[in-house]
Amino acid sequence: VCPRDVMITFGNEILEATMSRRSR
Fold it and tell me: How many Cα atoms sit within 13 Å of 13 on the Cβ side?
């Protein structure tokens, strides 16, 4: 797996978690 793919996946997960927390 390319590091870029990992960074994108990790960033996406963090972004989703932050959005969910902000929504709540």
Answer: 5
Phi, psi torsion values for 23, nearest 5 degrees: -60, -45
1 has a pLDDT exceeding 90: no
Q: What is the DSSP string of the chain?
A: --HHHHHHHHHHHHHHHHHHHHH-
Which residue's structure tokens are 């709540």?
24
Q: Which two tokens stand for residue 4?
A: 């870029």
Instruction: For residue 18, give the amino acid letter.
Output: T
Q: Which token pair is 1? A: 């797996």
